[in-house]
Request: fold
Amino acid sequence: MRPFAYERAADIGQATRLGALTGQGQIDAVVQFLAGGTSLIDLMKLDVLRPAYLVDLGPVKEGYDRIESGPEGLKLGAFAKMAAVERHPAVRAGYPVIAQSLQLAASAQLRNMATIGGNVLQKTRCPYYRDVSWQACNKRRPGSGCTAINAVNRNHAILGVDESCISQSPSDFGVALVALEATVELSGPDGARRIAFSTLHTPVGGQPHIETTLRSGEIITGFHIPAGPWTQRSLYLKIRDRASYEFALSSVAVALDLEGDHVRQVRIGLGGMAYRPWRSQEAEALLTGRPLTEENADAAARAALQGAKTHGGNGFKPELARRTLVRALLQAKTLTPDGAEA
Amino acid sequence: MPTLTRRAVIVGGAAFAGVALDRAKASEPPVNAVASTSGGNSSVRLVVNGKSHSLMLDGRTTVLDALRELLHLTGSKKGCDQGQCGACTVHIDGERVLSCLTLAVAAQGKRIDTIEGLARPDGTLHPMQQAFIDQDGFQCGYCTPGQIMSAIACVHEGHADSDSDIREYMSGNLCRCAAYPKIVAAIKQARGQMEKV
Reply:
């Protein structure tokens, strides 16, 4: 690991000032914020991230780690640990898809360490990004090319990719957030603002080294998940190579509001498939107002995957995603409106 | 304003952000330098197994390296050093975490508990340690300290009620000898003997 200078931020105001050079996810950002550290310290050991300065946000967490549920929805402090959100009774009862997306991620130790704000900013697990001996990686070295596109790319994304980068967003929680139309609360050198979670991560657009729309020095302080009649009948289905402690090969976040067999409203997110947290409004539109049958679920899944681009190793993914979405929808249908199994 | 060198330093005061740009233009530092206890180091106080230690260490030092190299508590193991295997599991402020991904400077003032602190002063083993012996919950033993620290937390968290729960909540501790069935048996033996926290 390269040397760095370490500073502990006393409060959020000082943190945003110290973090004036944090950038938008670029690996050469001079300053990195340290929260749970599970992604950052790992990538510093791998020499992918090389900050000259670490700003430890540890002391900042007071007041920014609360979990509150009310008629407006769910408010999650960004410094709450994944484990704390996963086990919170209000989250489990009212927003099962959120609790499950966290519980099915990483390991118990990592969930005790990682904050939910850091979770949505974690870097891709693309092995050609994580191993600096690969010369070509547009995310690490803009303009150098993409190794994965012609290499082992079984785990790579098929949605939202272009020729510059086919890396996959690893966050499960982000898939649930984007499906539920969450907003993100930010605090920065110029004050606080709120943005839609769907706009936090930038589309690849030939510039994979730029990952977020955060301004330098901005810190995620919280998430707001609006209440809705679909949040209780919701689930996160995760398909992976191991039964536990593995990133998604394919995953689906579904939140469903049914009237009899008919879909009043549905929210759908896809994981393990996309460059950034991915919501399929195409699939949602095809199901809305229609009976939730296997046939309609299948049509919705095909619509969700229409823009998919495969690159050899991940050629199986459209079919796996289709099956995952159909299964998740039919499984959600069997839940009672309060999220329990009927 | 403190002087910045290419060595890891802890910068005090408000000088920090202002010098960042200058530093970014400086020449490339050496890669993969090991943690050392000389030059440009900082004083860090760690509370380990109830004892307070004042250490001079390089800012890059993880809790795991501080435990093993500076405090000579070699029970916590370095497996992958990337947060993937669980061999380095310790408890910080009562929760199981990975010491290889925790910087020592960031763990100041927190309570660190390791495998060395489990047995009573008279040598009586913690029920989980005894259960691993009774149930033959290991072969080579390398992952065992991490398994035991994780297993104790697993019981405290209330995730040891069923075999499938135990397997799910112990999945962050890999055992290359595959002693998994015996580890599950050990946790089931110990869970009744441990007081719930």
About this structure: Chain A has twelve helices and twelve strands. The CA atoms of residues 131 and 229 of chain A lie 44 Å apart. The longest strand of chain A covers residues 250-259. The radius of gyration of chain A is 19 Å.
